[in-house]
């Protein structure tokens, strides 16, 4: 929610899987795209317009999948023209819905789905997913939860990931520090980061995005959940992490005070990953999308689960979606057919391997192609196993405002401009203002 720029530009969650923060849109909205006509040609062939949101590797994978789909479904044509890259998709889809000219399928970030799904033009896919060849319950929990709003499936899962810690084994050896193991704690993480930091050599123990965006925020949610907090309070009108958020921010503060964390000042997190790839960072919290670059940089690495406060495994998954829009019965049926086909194991694994996602279902995980890929990629199994303990951000219309408030709090603590308690009080006030607005 996921997930290829040409090298030497580094991969990020947004650039590899989606579009790259700051990358210009490839094309503008197509005026003749969605919302115009029933899409049925004289020969009975139905044309659907898909705003795929991908660039480079992801786009090449989608094109190959579309070609394969067309061979087995000759009555459906998938038009990949029009649309924008995924970072701009929410704005463009919102404008398209207002104008009445929208696509049949769009790549929507999971964190944006709740807002988009308020439109009556978003197709309810509950019946589609429950009648698909792969049983709905066979999908990983995060994949199901990310697309379910008020008991209804409002999109098809498109990408699945998780967070873990990638370690530079060379820096650990040179610092005389043992590699961490499953069950380690955040106190251990802070201690190890400090021991790996060497100002004289310009090495950091770890890194954290420092611009206050979603990349900054979603790394904190596993800490909040592990401490018993939640994103939205039980009353639905306040945040659920005022206390747990302070403690999580105290861990961030400890890293900052020890100067053992590289704070990436630019959107996209590219600089943080460059520091790790260059051998000057001991640990980086990241997802499976980063492994191709780490391997290309010839970093001798290991992957370990996230630390916790409780000793129990916990992580976050940020699934993204294929959202279907209603352009009439013929096009809606064709679009549902295509996204259902994409989610089936054979196609899913093709997409997972090329675009950096994890398998959507356990059936996909059992595919020989995935097992071969996982066996050849150090640490990939750690990310997949982490899905057992992964949670997702809530599909809530006010999530974006809550995230913005928390992002500002994290940055204030990272930069030493605020204490955790002060930052959380400000965050709670700003988030509550968004949550009390009727929606």
Automatic annotation (TrEMBL):
Organism: Streptomyces montanisoli
SUPFAM superfamilies linked to this entry: Periplasmic binding protein-like II
InterPro entries: Bact_solute-bd_prot1, SBP
Pfam family, any one: SBP_bac_1
PANTHER family according to UniProt: ABC TRANSPORTER SUBSTRATE-BINDING PROTEIN, ARABINOSE-BINDING PROTEIN-RELATED
Domain of life from the UniProt record: Bacteria
Protein name, entry field: ABC transporter substrate-binding protein
């Amino acid at each position: 929610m996921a997930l290829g720029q040409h090298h030497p530009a580094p991969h990020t969650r947004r650039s590899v899987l989606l579009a790259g923060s700051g990358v210009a849109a490839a094309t503008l909205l197509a005026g003749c795209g969605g919302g115009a006509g029933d899409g049925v040609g004289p020969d009975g062939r139905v044309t659907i317009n898909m705003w795929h949101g991908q660039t480079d590797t992801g786009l090449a994978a989608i094109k190959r999948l579309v070609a394969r789909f067309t061979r087995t479904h000759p009555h459906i044509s998938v038009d990949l023209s029009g649309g924008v890259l995924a970072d701009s998709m929410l704005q463009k889809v919102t404008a398209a819905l207002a104008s009445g000219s929208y696509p049949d399928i769009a790549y929507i970030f999971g964190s944006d789905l709740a807002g988009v799904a308020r439109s009556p033009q978003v197709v309810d896919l509950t019946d589609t997913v429950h009648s698909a060849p792969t049983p709905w319950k066979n999908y990983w929990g995060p994949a199901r939860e990310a697309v379910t709003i008020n008991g209804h499936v409002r999109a098809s899962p498109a990408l699945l990931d998780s967070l873990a810690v990638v370690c530079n084994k060379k820096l650990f050896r040179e610092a005389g520090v043992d590699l961490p193991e499953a069950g380690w704690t955040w106190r251990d993480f802070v201690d190890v980061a400090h021991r790996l930091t060497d100002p004289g050599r310009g090495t950091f123990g770890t890194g954290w995005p420092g611009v206050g965006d979603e990349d900054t925020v979603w790394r904190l949610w596993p800490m909040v959940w592990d401490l018993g907090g939640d994103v939205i309070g039980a009353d639905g009108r306040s945040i659920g992490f005022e206390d747990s958020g302070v403690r999580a921010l105290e861990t961030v503060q400890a890293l900052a005070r020890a100067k053992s964390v590289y704070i990436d000042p630019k959107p996209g997190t590219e600089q943080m990953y460059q520091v790790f790839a260059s051998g000057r960072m001991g640990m980086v919290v990241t997802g499976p999308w980063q492994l191709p670059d780490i391997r290309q940089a010839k970093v001798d690495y290991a992957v370990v689960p996230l630390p916790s406060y409780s000793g129990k495994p916990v992580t976050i998954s940020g699934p993204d979606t294929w959202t279907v829009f209603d352009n009439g019965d013929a096009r809606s049926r064709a679009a549902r057919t295509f996204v259902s086909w994409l989610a089936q194991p054979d196609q899913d694994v093709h997409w997972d391997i090329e675009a950096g996602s994890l398998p959507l279902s356990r059936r996909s995980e059992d595919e020989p192609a995935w097992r071969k890929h996982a066996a050849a990629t150090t640490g990939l199994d750690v990310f997949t196993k982490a899905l057992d303990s992964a949670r997702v951000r809530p599909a809530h219309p006010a999530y974006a405002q809550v995230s913005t408030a928390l992002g500002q709090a994290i940055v204030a603590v990272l930069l030493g401009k605020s204490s955790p308690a002060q930052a959380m009080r400000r965050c709670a006030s700003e988030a509550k203002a968004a949550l009390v607005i009727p929606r």
